[in-house]
Amino acid sequence: MGATTQLKYGDNSLTLPVRDGTIGPSVMDISKLYAQSGMFTYDPGFTSTASCESQITYIDGDEGTLLYRGYPIDQLAEHGDFLETCYLLLYGDLPTAAQKHDFDYRVTRHTMVHEQMARFFQGFRRDAHPMAVMVASVGALSAFYHDSTDISDPTQRMVASMRMIAKMPTLAAMAYKYTIGQPFIYPKNDLDYTSNFLRMCYAVPCEEYHVNPVLSRALDRIFILHADHEQNASTSTVRLAGSSGANPFACIAAGVACLWGPAHGGANEAALKMLSEIGTVENIPKFVARAKDKNDPFRLMGFGHRVYKNYDPRAKIMQHTCHEVLTEMGIKDDPLLDIAVELERIALHDEYFVEKKLYPNIDFYSGITLKAMGFPTDMFTVLFAVARTVGWIAQWKEMIEDPSQKIGRPRQLYTGAAPRDYIPMSKR
Ligand code: SDX
Questions:
Q1: How far apart are CA 374 and CA 40, in angstroms?
Q2: CA dihedral 390, 391, 395, 396 (to 10 degrees)
Q3: Which residue, among 84, 253, 106, has the nearest Cα to 168 in the 3D structure?
Q4: How far apart are the C-alpha atoms of 52 and 2, rounded to whole Å?
């Protein structure tokens, strides 16, 4: 019998197994708690609850570190490219040169979508939010790729994974082109993943489009930063959807839907709108006061995190990338960046934010960077979804391939009406 801990409640006590991870907090295994005690645990936001065992990503919130399969995010962002990170998250190790070449080849040759998908887009209003289009079109992939929806077949699971990673940029570019009334641009197999995406977004049939290598490298790094992040809300959504046996395309569509929320992946769009609403450096104190006011629902978007109680390591790399892109685009002084830098400085010295350990997160600088690259604000979360697809699919595969996997079905604390008899209409 391994380590255990005692849980005492009333005159009773229970012995609970304790499991240690490679690093990070240990867990008390409460899977038998209800059977042995007749009681549930209660943790609505899962602030102290591990929903699964995973070997993919690890975050140390106090230290502000993030590891993909044990490799620090800053080293992967500096030395590798996004498809190398995809290989690492999916297979568990960095690829050899031959493995990387084969993986890039396979992803590249899955980038086209079924030609009828183009007709699917015609049903949307031109002013539809691109995330609405993405939720629908990613789910619609289930209707086109029946040969990779059998989750019990490992080959189909990997084909579906490759298709998801490869087709998300194509769908994202189509969602963007549709909203601006330009024709869809097909992927080109002689371009790398991120250059292909930029060309599908910005090329027009009338002339050759040359991808800016500095912007392509910057966006590729941004994709690396967004690739995975333990059991965040959208990843947990994908896992829960997948636990019922739903096909991978439908599960990823559920993840896209969850990511859209402003408390999660929608924060990059909300953060840029907030900076625009603040408008000037002089207005910052007023908004900081609102963020601290319990009676005001306003929060500093791009600040705070459930896990990081230190600076989000991705935000540091994003800030560096922001300056790189602004320089490349010849933007000498961006008033929104001035506001962001001053807002960060003020917040990091304000006792409210210090006491609550609120630091900039990945979404604080990403909006300024993506805007400088020419993306409209409502495309920011779409780009987050493109990058996070590999994390969602890697976590989905890990769950499906876990022999102890079962359908997720939380319980509840019921505080509704006690049992009562029906009242006939004549007596109401
Ligand atoms: C992402 O989970 C992930 O890993 C997500 C993500 C990923 O890669 O998948 O990292 C991506 O979603 C980043 C977070 C993006 N969201 C935002 O930037 C939105 C603004 N941030 C907050 O809404 C908030 O910080 C959350 C949602 C991110 C975290 O919320 P928690 O962990 O539930 O914390 P909380 O709401 O309980 O806040 C703790 C305290 C509260 O005050 P008290 O009730 O204790 O007095 O801090 C305050 C909050 O009011 N607080 C903020 C604040 N964030 C928290 N006050 C002002 N501004 C903020 N941004």
A1: 50
A2: -50
A3: 253
A4: 19
Q: pLDDT category, 333, cuts 50, 70, 90?
A: confident
Query: DSSP of 176-200, one letter per residue?
Result: HHHHTTPPP----TTS-HHHHHHHH
pLDDT tens per residue, range 89-132: 999 999 999 999 999 999 999 999 999 999 999 999 999 999 99
The residue behind tokens 């060309």 is 199
Q: To which residue do tokens 């990945």 refer?
A: 362
Q: Is 60 left (phi over 0), alpha (psi -120 to 50) or beta?
A: beta
Pocket probe for ligand 1: among 46, 264, 314, the residue whose CB has the most ligand atoms within 8 Å is 264
Q: Is 413 helix (H, G, I), strand (E, B) or coil?
A: coil
Residue 1 has pLDDT above 90, yes or no: no
Amino acid (one-letter) located at 397: K
Burial of 62 (0-12, 13-18, 19+ CB in 10 A): exposed
- Give the residue whose CA is nearest to atom 8 of ligand 1: 229
**Dihedral sign computed on CA atoms, order 22, 24, 29, 34:** negative
What is the pTM for the complete model shown? Answer: 0.96
Question: Any residues with CB less than 8 A from the CB of 133 and at least 6 apart, and which?
Answer: 121, 124, 175, 178, 179
Q: Which two tokens stand for residue 235?
A: 């990843």
Furthest C-alpha separation in the chain: 79
Contacts 24+ apart (CB under 8 A), 46-49: 46/231, 46/236, 47/306
> In this structure, what token pair is assigned to residue 287?
């908004």
Nearest CA to ligand 1 atom 48: 356
The answer to whether 351 and 190 are in contact (CB under 8 A) is no
The C-alpha atoms of residue 298 and residue 303 are separated, in whole angstroms, by: 12
Q: Which among 182, 212, 178 is positioned nearest to 379, based on CA atoms? A: 178
Return the beta strands (E) in 185-297 as ranges: none
**What is the residue with the minimal CA distance to atom 11 of ligand 1?**
264
Residues at CB less than 6 angstroms from ligand 1: 45, 229, 232, 263-265, 267, 291, 299-307, 356, 358, 361-363
**Is residue 277 within 8 Å of residue 29, measured between CB atoms?**
no
Residue 325 Cα to ligand 1 midpoint, Å, equals 27
Residues 178/126, Cβ–Cβ less than 8 Å: yes
Whole-number Å distance between alpha carbons of 124 and 137: 11
